[in-house]
Amino acid sequence: MTFSTGIPVSKLQQSEREKLLYLEEVLHKRVVGQDPAVRSVAEAIQRSRAGLSDPRRPIASFMFMGPTGVGKTELAKALASYLFNTEEALVRIDMSEYMEKHAVSRLIGAPPAHGDVFNAFLQILEDGRVTDSQGRTVSFTNTVIIMTSNVGSQYILNSDEDTPKDLTYETIKQRVMEAARALERVQARIADRKIKLQVTDSAVQLLGNLVYDPNYGARPVKRVIQQNIENELAKGILRGEFKDEDTILVDTELTAFANGQLPQQKLIFKKLDNDSNTQSTGTEEALSSTV
């Protein structure tokens, strides 16, 4: 299966759409539990097939960390089997064989090359490409990269109590502006399909609130945009709800009072008529007012 971004929805077979929409359930048939990991993998594939992933980087890159036997490698095998119909499509590299810096020559050739294997990973994950000592360039833009480690979860969640939990105003403002720029990048990607994205002030303010958390400071804005905007757009495209040349309005609404829980704001996506007079908002200005 060949992955490429910007594929018109009309070229996606109906059976393939259904497979992508139920990818999470398919992976769960082999991987018990691990809901967040399985969901993240499935959503990354859905974004790629809907044309919303960054075309200059790999489809997705993950780091699965935890004790032995929790399903890290099994999830990688299940994904390879789903995408390429065989587990043999999974390329495995045992990092214990590259503990010495010069051992990277076994991957991409002897000098002149990288002196440290992790520098090679930086180039692959950031630029989606790597060049060997013979000058041959390999593209990783259509790959899923999964790194695994046996580090226990108790080490993952350790935090330094001396680390200040509150960020300064300027730092918070900078992160919120990054969220605005991330929204603009989403709009630019779907513009190739002539799909217009309009975001209301209330939606931008809600995203601004999601970006900042008093306990963790400013969470990675890219992940917030992916989870709340790109994932829903991708699913709507795959379901056939959003098509080329559509105008999509991102707004908010209050959830109903239920089970003793107060109503909360949530994002909603509406397809507007082509003659709609709804105006798109200035995302950076609205996010700035949120700060």
UniProtKB/TrEMBL annotation:
<dbReference type="InterPro" id="IPR027417">
    <property type="entry name" value="P-loop_NTPase"/>
</dbReference>
<dbReference type="InterPro" id="IPR050130">
    <property type="entry name" value="ClpA_ClpB"/>
</dbReference>
<dbReference type="InterPro" id="IPR028299">
    <property type="entry name" value="ClpA/B_CS2"/>
</dbReference>
<keyword id="KW-0067">ATP-binding</keyword>
<dbReference type="GO" id="GO:0016887">
    <property type="term" value="F:ATP hydrolysis activity"/>
</dbReference>
<feature type="domain" description="Clp ATPase C-terminal">
    <location>
        <begin position="167"/>
        <end position="256"/>
    </location>
</feature>
<dbReference type="GO" id="GO:0005524">
    <property type="term" value="F:ATP binding"/>
</dbReference>
<dbReference type="InterPro" id="IPR019489">
    <property type="entry name" value="Clp_ATPase_C"/>
</dbReference>
<protein>
    <submittedName>
        <fullName>Chaperone protein ClpB2</fullName>
    </submittedName>
</protein>
<dbReference type="Pfam" id="PF10431">
    <property type="entry name" value="ClpB_D2-small"/>
</dbReference>
<dbReference type="Pfam" id="PF07724">
    <property type="entry name" value="AAA_2"/>
</dbReference>
<dbReference type="GO" id="GO:0034605">
    <property type="term" value="P:cellular response to heat"/>
</dbReference>
<keyword id="KW-0547">Nucleotide-binding</keyword>
<dbReference type="GO" id="GO:0005737">
    <property type="term" value="C:cytoplasm"/>
</dbReference>
<dbReference type="InterPro" id="IPR003959">
    <property type="entry name" value="ATPase_AAA_core"/>
</dbReference>
